[in-house]
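DM from R.C. (forwarded with permission)

"hey, sorry to bug you on a friday — could you get me a structure for this? deadline for the figure draft is monday and I only need the backbone to look sensible"
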Amino acid sequence: MRLDWLEDILAVIETGSFVEAAKRRFLSQPAFSRRIRMIEQYVGSELFDRTKKPVQLKSAVYGQQSEIRELVVKLHELRNNLGNQHQDRDNQIIIASQHAITTSVAPTLIKNLATINGLTTLLRSANRDECYALLIKKQVELILIYHSESDELPEQQDFFQKHELARERLIPVCLKSERALIAQQQQRKGWIPVVSYPSDSFLGQVLEREIFFRLRSELSIHRVAETSLTLAILPMTLAGVGVGWLPDTLVAPELKSGALVDLSEEFPCCELRVMAIGLKSTESARSLSAWETVVASAQS
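My reply, with the result:
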């Protein structure tokens, strides 16, 4: 049933008069009466008791009054949502971010994009390779990824635009109550328990090149658990599973509370750059303005 027909029915219910309802609906009284008859023909029965003043719904229809009102509201919402789809797309930026960055750098950037550019953000969490794939396929406009000094960023200068947003340190941490046991295992058995990243993941490769390669001349690395999710390594480390190498910004609250301890004096750490990367081929005014906010966010 058409939305305007439902609104016609409500107009009669609320005014109790075909004449007043016609005025509310900006129709002549004969035209409005014809439309009510058309609605009744469509439904297959009379809706109103015309013998009563004010006009009332037939008793069989009266119980549907609340459903009619609810349906009118929902149809208005649906129409508005459908009509706003294009505007919503114009006011939305889609960002893919490595998991840990979603809780560190991303929130401030999202706030700036909303405040300065009036943009809403759809944030997708993915691993590093997936972020690049989404960007190249133009399924996202911006990616936030980690970069280490021993890692190569794409060098297609005419294809990518890159900007450093922040620097973080990947530091070794463990549960405070487990520190003595880990030191004992290190001294007596020559190994340390580690919660690590898979060797085929970006952070796993960083650990292999910059941390474990240096440690293996002195220690054996006992991988108690592996996960590609940085945000999953934190609770495992808090559970005392082993030593985890985590971004310093991520573990700052736990270090401050004393739940975790920083083992940087015992084991190596490495620096990571948080990079924002977009496609140069995207040159709409909105995208250019958003990139300016990205650059400004790094400077603030």
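R.C.: lifesaver. The two ends are 55 Å apart (CA to CA).
me: no worries. The chain has three domains: 3-83, 98-166+273-299, 168-272.
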